[in-house]
Write a structure and sequence with these properties.
single chain; alpha+beta; 5-stranded mixed β-sheet; 5 helices; globular
């Protein structure tokens, strides 16, 4: 697939978006039965943007980073207490600009996207958007917090690391039983839970690495 940015051809980024959205659709199709809230879908799109950005960094593809910024910019985020987010649409455009060098077409595409980003999301199909919390974790450090799950409504939690270490994610119910665990050794663990009854659940985030890292946690 070919993606055109600023009149130039970019091969690969468009294909990556198709593949990532395809994977996301397969992963959630069985669970998206009407109980999937707009905010939960927003978590999925932010995670897709993070994966696409990582793909673009690995290949030096400014077009992929621009597309990731566009995906991220569509999702409003409600930030809870925590540190400043490191994965933002503006930061992705900065990365794209560094890769673009003096390519006028790409630089122009980035400049045209910055103004709408500065104005923020005015209306969105993702409702109020997911809740965002950012925290630094030392090597091997764990962090636990509670979320309130609503009965009959899908709860989606994702942790986006800054790429330094592997992050594990576990969700436990009110009795302490594990209802979801993502410990596949990557930077983007995600858990999707469909509780029949509402109630408090505990989310555990673990930095499995030997160095400190930052983590952006999203939940609906």
């Amino acid at each position: 697939m070919v993606m055109r940015i600023g009149g130039r051809r970019w091969i690969g980024a468009g294909l990556a978006v198709s593949l990532l959205f395809g994977c996301a659709a397969v992963a959630t199709a069985k669970q998206d039965d009407g109980s999937m809230t707009p905010a939960a879908r927003g978590v999925t799109q932010v995670l897709t943007a993070a994966e696409l950005a990582a793909w673009g960094r690995e290949r030096g593809d400014a077009g992929a980073l621009i597309m990731a910024a566009r995906l991220l910019a569509e999702v409003p985020l409600r930030q809870a207490d925590g540190e400043t987010p490191f994965l933002t649409a503006a930061s992705l455009l900065d990365e794209a600009a560094a890769l673009a060098g003096d390519n006028p077409g790409v630089v122009d595409a980035i400049d045209r996207l910055r103004d709408p980003l500065n104005r923020g999301v005015r209306s969105s199909t993702f409702g109020a958007g997911p809740v965002l919390t950012v925290k630094s974790l030392q090597a091997r450090e764990s962090w636990a917090f509670a979320v309130e799950a609503r009965g009959g409504e899908i709860l989606r939690v994702a942790a986006i690391g800054d790429g330094d270490t592997n992050i594990d994610l576990t969700v436990r119910d009110a009795r302490g039983a594990v209802v979801c665990r993502d410990g596949f050794g990557d930077h983007y663990p995600v858990c999707t839970v469909s509780p029949r009854a509402g109630g408090q659940m505990q989310v555990d985030i673990v930095n499995r690495g030997q160095v400190w890292t930052r983590v952006q946690v999203l939940s609906n």
